[in-house]
Design a protein that fits this description.
The complex is a heterodimer of chains A (187) and B (453).
Chain A (H helix, E strand, L loop, with lengths): L18 E2 L2 H18 L4 H11 L8 H12 L10 H22 L5 E2 L5 H25 L11 H25 L7
Antiparallel strand pairs in A: 1-2
Chain B lengths: L13 E6 L3 E3 L1 H20 L2 H19 L8 E10 L3 E9 L6 E8 L4 E7 L5 E7 L4 E13 L5 E3 L5 E7 L22 E17 L11 H7 L7 E9 L2 E6 L24 H18 L3 E6 L6 E5 L2 H12 L21 E6 L4 H12 L3 E6 L11 H23 L3 E4 L9 H9 L2 H11 L1
Parallel strand pairs in B: 13-14, 13-16, 16-17, 17-18
Antiparallel strand pairs in B: 1-3, 2-9, 3-4, 4-7, 5-6, 5-8, 8-10, 11-12, 14-15
The chains are: A mainly alpha (187), B alpha+beta (453).
């Protein structure tokens, strides 16, 4: 296959497949490089991140994309403590985006042409997860991240209460659908 | 020159497959779960809220993909149907009824058994997909082949690829009509549309002959009798030619199928090879068969690559339908078939050998038939060569093959076998004119065709 042959299929026009499958890989590379620069800024580690960003979509079956996610998450350890800034929020969204793109790159044939509607459901899920997660991150970091003088707005005891409430809420969220489901009939 | 492999899958105009997809987790989903747990574990060990927050969307995404996977046991139905054709293209539709939870379908399809294309369509939009496939060849052929697999949420859960669906159709060759067709050297039977050499009823004036026992009195030509008679007992009758029918055997050499594009000879891709020798052969065979049957003659058919595709000579509309059907389904066989004995030719029959003459087998058969006294016409069905995208070596190899073929054609001509090129290109005479030349009395025509044909 050469570049000149990369045209949407004209023999099945009703499919409306206009986006090349490798576009997912291209977006992954761009996102990976930008996140590496945001996370590690100008350090020697950037080279490793860029190499991973380029290599991961080339052979997605080797799961290089997931190594890149781990690498970027590890970048947060460069800070001595959690801080709330725009970089963290970008990385928070970026890691999730990289995961979605990596799974899609693994599932979609790179030679294929994709209907734009295929990306709608993953995009909706991404937004549905990210909006509350970003809000939660802002609130959590405002409450729990220590300031420059080491003072924490919420003490460990208060955090335990909040954590317990959060666990109860999460448990209710996960168990409610199961409790309301009718019991499976014995066959 | 490659014989295509025999079709293992059934071909029809409408193919439906219902399958229970077998779902598997993508390695990406498992890896996502692992790294999410690893980041969350590091967050606990290092007491880092930021790492826990980074793990949170990954855990939710993995959980959602797994929870919303399509349920096991729901079947999917895919229907591939060919529509009507306008002669040059044919419509086809693909209908996919997907199980709940399927977000996308990865569909791989190929037209005319050529390179496959892959498209990914959204599950909710996968109703009727339609397309068009060009009809480039006659005969049995695979028109559309599709393979598919289903993708769950975020492609984190996928089904195993399903068995391919193949839709094929037998395309009838075009038929040409001719004003005159050659006849055998010896006509047989007492009925028909051709005038035989015998005196009899039905034909045009033949000669004036002395009256003999059995001649009807009303045939006496009194003017000729008065002019020629030496005495009162001399009577002369006007004789007419008897009518007879011709017996024709069409022998189609379908052991190879090469296209006009020389660069495609080694690959023989239906979509790229252009007009093929079997396309020309099917058109020639069906035109010849229809021409003779419509003239009231008897025609038989023999396919050199198959023992089973042989039809004894006969006449009539029903026999023509049998012949055309046998010609339509002619295709190369993957198994080489060598004749121990040449196919039996009815006495006095005219034999048409339709061959690309790229090997000696057809030539040997034609020489045997000619030696047995049959009139044999070798119809060259090799289309004019085109050299797009050929290499220097391919052109040289083609030249060698053509030189060997010219030697065979020369041998056929020297042995009294008439030669007819079916393709219209690069010839001074039209096909109709060449057939008219062959239809002339054999003694006059043989030399002329040998010189110019």
């Amino acid at each position: 296959m050469n570049l000149s042959s990369l045209t949407p299929p004209s023999d099945m026009p009703s499919a409306g497949a206009r986006i090349p499958g490798y576009a997912v890989s291209v977006v992954f590379v761009v996102a990976g490089v930008l996140l590496t620069l945001v996370d590690y800024q100008i350090t020697g580690w950037v080279v490793f991140g860029i190499v991973l960003s380029l290599a991961a979509p080339w052979s997605p079956q080797y799961l290089g994309g997931w190594i890149l996610i781990l690498f970027l998450a590890a970048g947060e350890l460069a800070h001595h403590h959690a801080v709330l800034n725009w970089r963290f929020l970008v990385v928070l969204a970026g890691l999730h985006l990289l995961y979605v793109l990596a799974v899609l790159a693994l599932g979609l044939p790179w030679r294929s042409w994709v209907q734009p509607a295929v990306f709608l459901a993953p995009l909706r899920r991404f937004v549905a997860i990210q909006v509350p997660t970003q809000l939660l991150a802002v609130v959590a970091l405002l409450l729990l991240a220590p300031s420059k003088d080491g003072h924490r707005p919420v003490t460990v005891g208060e955090f335990a209460v909040i954590g317990a409430l959060a666990i109860v809420g999460l448990a209710l969220l996960l168990l409610t659908p199961r409790l309301t489901d009718p019991p499976a009939s014995a066959s | 020159m490659i014989d295509p492999a025999p079709q293992s899958a059934p071909r029809s105009s409408r193919v439906t497959a219902t399958a229970l997809p077998s779902w598997t987790r993508s390695p990406g989903l498992i890896a996502g779960g692992v790294i999410a747990v690893a980041i969350a574990g590091a967050a606990v060990l290092l007491a880092r809220i930021d790492l826990a927050l980074l793990a949170l969307p990954l855990i939710i995404a993995v959980t959602l993909s797994w929870e919303r996977r399509p349920p096991q046991g729901q079947s999917a139905t895919v229907t591939l149907a060919l529509g009507e054709s306008d002669g040059s293209e044919m419509d086809f539709t693909v209908r996919i009824d997907v199980p709940a939870g399927v977000e996308a379908i990865a569909l791989r399809y190929s037209l005319l058994a050529y390179e496959s294309r892959e498209i990914v369509i959204a599950g909710p939009l996968a109703g009727d997909l339609s397309g068009r496939v060009p009809l480039l060849h006659s005969g049995p052929q695979e028109l559309v082949r599709i393979e598919y697999r289903f993708l769950g949420p975020d492609a984190g859960v996928t089904s195993l690829p399903q068995e391919p669906l193949i839709a094929g159709r037998i395309i009838a060759p075009q038929r040409a009509a001719f004003g005159s067709l050659p006849v055998p050297r010896r006509l047989q039977g007492l009925t028909g549309s051709h005038e035989s050499a015998r005196a009899g009823d039905g034909g045009d004036f033949r000669d004036v002959h002395p009256f003999t026992a059995g001649d009807r009195l009303r045939r006496i030509d009194w003017k000729a009798t008065a002019r020629r008679g030496q005495n009162a007992a001399d009577l002369y009758v006007r004789r007419t030619a008897a009518l007879a029918d011709a017996t024709v055997l069409i022998v189609l050499d379908s052991r190879d199928d090469v296209g006009e594009q020389v660069a495609e000879w080694y690959r023989n891709a239906a979509a790229k090879k252009g007009i093929s020798s079997l396309d020309v052969a099917r058109e020639a065979a069906s035109s010849i068969a229809a021409g003779y049957i419509n003239a009231g003659d008897r025609v038989g058919f023999q396919d050199l690559s198959s023992r089973s595709r042989m039809i004894a000579h006969g006449g009539g509309r029903r026999h023509l339908w049998h012949l055309l059907r046998a010609i339509e389904i002619t295709q190369p066989s993957a198994v080489a078939f060598r004749h121990q004995r040449p196919p039996i030719v009815p006495p006095g029959a005219l034999v048409y050998l339709l061959s690309s003459l790229l090997d000696d087998q057809g030539v040997q058969l034609a020489l045997r038939w000619r030696a047995n006294g049959h009139r044999v016409i070798a119809v060259d069905v090799l289309p004019p060569a085109r050299f797009a995208r050929t290499t220097r070596y391919e052109r040289a190899a083609h030249r060698v093959v053509m030189m060997e073929r010219d030697d065979r054609i020369g041998l056929l001509r020297r042995r009294g076998i008439e030669f007819l090129r079916w393709s219209e290109d690069d010839t001074r005479l039209s096909r109709e004119a060449r057939l008219q030349l062959l239809s002339r009395p054999a003694r006059a025509a043989a030399g002329w065709i040998g010189a110019r044909g």
